[in-house]
Design a protein that fits this description.
five-stranded parallel β-sheet, 39 helices, 8 strands, elongated
């Protein structure tokens, strides 16, 4: 803390001394005096401060300037140590004063400069550059970034012992130029010898380092070197730049840099000077030289709305807040897009925020809609970065736009490219370096939405016909293999219609290694992407691989109840199987579809799907499949006709035995016991359920999860027989095992059974609340309609 206060005191002293010799001092003097008066007592009266720059110069000659600044620094430090609360007020004061400060008047030395700087003196007025372009719109937002930049520049200027290099990187259109230019203008007081500006975009394409040579020539001219005296060789130009900048305090602003060499050649030689760099690449190599690297991110909703309101007026934003929020969402927080949107609203008087938001919602038209009078500034900033990519990276950029989903792993990109993982990883690194792609976690990437649309435009323009179909098919096959491996890793002995032996033989199993990810966790992480792949399969008529993926994907939902997603995936899969004329697959997928439909209360539709499934199973003449469809049909009858459910289950047990399916028979026996209990024969149900429990645990690969469900059903039957202690014991045991097995849906069922017993029998209130709370958490996470009912039960507890 002590070091921070000392640094702040030094920065403030340098800044205030610089202001005292500038034309801004007349306006700033009263503000500074008020600060000292509030914090310094009676000895800090306004008349202690010089009225004009000339008065300060007369009071302290160049030789005594350092002493004057040193005394001011000591006074400020003493004030900050006595009242640490003054630090924030001082920072705000400095930010406001330097934002208004202009360059130091010509011919005046800045008191408090480093001895080497004072000895050389300022550049002659005609050689003092002021080249950083002015902003054409008012700058708002980026408060934290500007504060950080200001602090670094101020500290460097006050210490005057080194040259600071700051790199501001970020994706195209994120506002790097505006941020750096604004920072440069509000930092004039720190750099009395001027500001030099180079835009490497204007010099791009000069081979053999000629862009660096051209930039050096520009800087030397800015520093007063006549054309006739410009050296011809790069080393001589570099040497002359060091000589011309030595002992002077300058700011170099370098825009659109794409290589570290462009920066290294243009670092001035005067301690206290600084270089501000903007780049779409991170320029991480410069960190070795001591450069500070900052990454600029897209604006958040609040900041983006503030920018829109600044350009269009707060009234326009407030008139339809929802539409304005949708607009900034569609712009993805990129200032370049927000400025275009604002310009359209300002110039097209009949255009409303709602109408423009509706226009931009069509992603096929979004980029073209972000234009004004034939100009396409949003596409232009992306084009500039795209043109700098090597051919293979440019192809990768294009094909990424065709990968279904919003995030992807290296393996997915390798599949899309038809390349190996190493090649794909190298290309992804290049795109991340170019800020056209961002890392979204370990080995996971995503594109900004507008970048993705630009990449798609380039793909549609430059890739051969049929390219998108090929990419989607490769990605679909990639996900099918991984999902099939995950499905088999969860449980191998499950009914599957798809024969994927050949596909799996040609691919490594990522779930077989000791450090492999959990298959269900992987499926959950990829859930949105797999759904996107299924939708893309429908768009491109890839029906065979589509239904195979839907069948394997259902293993996730058997364990984690994302009911709406389960329903959609099975609807797509059943449609694919029907189009591919695969009756066995259609029967399997439609019978599975009945499960989420019943969870959502769509019972009539579930019955219709089961009827179709039965017909398809008969056509397929597949005994195990017929037994499975009957199992699902029995589940349907459970809710309304237990006697009919018992009849269906008994036939399913017979067919499973005929097909030699011990696990299938054990599972259906479990459901049969549940139906017997629902029909009122709980004593018989206990025998049947114990038989199922024993059979499930006696399998070659014991089915602990289904056995735990049988334990819960046994507890339920005890409850129906009035055997409370036995019921609670069995249900509590089931809850523990089901939680261990991550079978949260069935854990919630057992918890609700326990809650029912507790409320009926007057059980412990705290335990009842805990059980209901956990059940609510599970149902809310899965989007279950029962969540509202459970929440109401909790509310009734008070």
């Amino acid at each position: 803390m002590e070091a921070e206060l000392a640094t702040l005191a030094g920065t403030a002293a340098t800044t205030l001394m610089g202001l005292m010799v500038s034309e801004s001092w007349t306006q700033a003097r009263a503000r500074v005096a008020r600060f000292f008066a509030r914090r310094g007592g009676e000895d800090a009266a306004e008349d202690e401060l010089p009225d004009t720059p000339d008065e300060l110069t007369a009071a302290a000659g160049a030789d005594d300037a350092a002493a004057v600044e040193g005394e001011l620094r000591r006074r400020l430090r003493r004030m900050l140590e006595e009242d640490p609360g003054a630090a924030q007020e001082l920072r705000i004061l400095l930010a406001e004063l330097t934002g208004a400060a202009g360059p130091a008047p010509e011919g005046r030395a800045v008191p408090g400069r480093h001895a080497g700087i004072a000895a050389r003196g300022q550049l002659p007025s005609e050689d003092r550059p002021d080249e950083v372009p002015a902003l054409r719109t008012r700058f708002i937002n980026r408060t934290d970034t500007l504060s950080a930049l200001d602090g670094i520049l101020a500290t460097g200027a006050s210490e005057a012992v080194h040259v600071g290099v700051l790199v501001v990187a970020g994706p195209p259109g994120v506002g790097k130029k505006a941020t750096v230019r604004h920072c440069a203008h509000r930092s004039r007081a720190y750099f009395p010898d001027g500001q030099v500006y180079v835009d490497f975009a204007e010099l791009r394409g000069r081979a053999g380092g000629a862009d660096v040579s051209a930039a050096l020539g520009m800087c030397l001219r800015s520093l007063g070197v006549k054309e006739d005296y410009l050296p011809r060789s790069l080393p001589e130009q570099t040497r002359l730049l060091r000589e011309r900048t030595g002992g002077r305090r300058l700011l170099f602003v370098l825009d659109n840099v794409d290589a570290p060499a462009q920066v290294r050649a243009l670092v001035p030689n005067g301690p206290g000077s600084a270089v501000l760099v903007t780049s779409s690449t991170s320029l991480g190599e410069l960190a070795v030289d001591g450069a500070r690297l900052m990454s600029l991110k897209p604006l958040g909703t609040h900041s983006a709305l503030a920018l829109l309101a600044d350009r269009c007026g707060q009234e326009a934003v407030d008139a339809d807040r929802a539409a304005a929020e949708r607009l900034v969402e569609l712009c993805g927080g990129l200032p370049v897009a927000l400025h275009v949107v604002a310009a359209r609203l300002l110039t097209q008087r009949r255009l409303t925020t709602a109408a423009l938001a509706a226009e931009l919602s069509d992603e096929n038209r979004r980029l073209s809609a972000m234009s004004l009078r034939g100009e396409h500034p949003v596409s232009a900033v992306f084009d500039a970065s795209y043109r700098q990519l090597e051919p293979e990276a440019a192809r990768c950029y294009r094909l990424l736009s065709w990968i279904p989903g919003r995030t992807f792993e290296t393996g997915t990109v390798a599949a899309a490219l038809g390349a190996d993982r190493f090649t794909a990883g190298s290309l992804l690194d290049e795109l991340v370096e170019a800020s056209l792609l961002e890392e979204a976690g370990e080995d996971r990437y995503r594109c900004h939405e507008l970048v993705r649309l630009h990449a798609r435009e380039r793909a549609e323009s430059e890739e051969p016909q049929g390219g998108q179909l090929a990419v989607v098919e490769r990605v679909l096959t990639h996900y099918l293999a991984l999902t099939a491996f995950a499905d088999r890793a969860v449980r191998l002995d499950r009914l599957r219609i798809a024969d994927l032996a050949e596909l799996l033989a040609d691919n490594p199993d990522p779930f077989a290694a000791d450090d492999a990810p959990d298959p269900l966790d992987w499926l959950e992480a990829e859930r949105a992407n797999i759904l996107a792949v299924l939708r893309a399969a429908g768009d491109h008529g890839l029906c065979m691989r589509g239904w195979q993926l839907a069948e394997g994907f259902t293993v996730l939902f058997l364990h984690r109840r994302y009911v709406a997603d389960w329903k959609e995936s099975l609807e797509l899969g059943a449609a694919f199987a029907s189009a591919a004329l695969e009756p066995a697959a259609e029967a399997r997928l439609r019978s599975l579809l009945s499960r989420p439909l019943m969870d959502l209360g769509e019972y009539e539709r579930a019955r219709a799907e089961l009827n179709t499934a039965q017909a398809c199973a008969e056509v397929a003449d597949h005994t195990q499949l017929r037994a499975s469809v009957l199992e699902f049909l029995g589940r349907y009858w459970d809710r309304s006709d237990p006697a009919r459910a018992i009849e269906v289950y008994e036939e399913s047990v017979r067919l499973n035995a005929e097909a030699g399916q011990a696990r299938g028979a054990a599972i259906v026996t479990f459901f049969l016991g549940c139906a017997q209990d629902a029909a009122g024969d709980s004593a018989l149900a206990l025998d049947t359920l114990r038989q199922a429990h024993q059979a499930l645990l006696g399998l070659a690969d014991p089915d602990v999860r289904m056995a735990a469900r049988a334990t819960a059903a046994i507890g339920r039957a005890h409850g129906h027989l009035g055997q409370r202690a036995e019921a609670e014991r069995e249900l509590r045991e089931a809850v523990g095992v089901l939680r261990e097995q991550d079978a949260t849906h069935y854990e919630a069922q057992a918890l609700l059974e326990l809650a029912d017993i507790a409320q009926r029998e007057g059980g412990e209130r705290a335990l009842l609340r805990a059980d209901l709370t956990r059940a609510l958490e599970i149902h809310e996470a899965g989007g279950s309609p029962l969540a509202a009912e459970i929440r109401a039960r909790l509310g009734e507890l008070g």
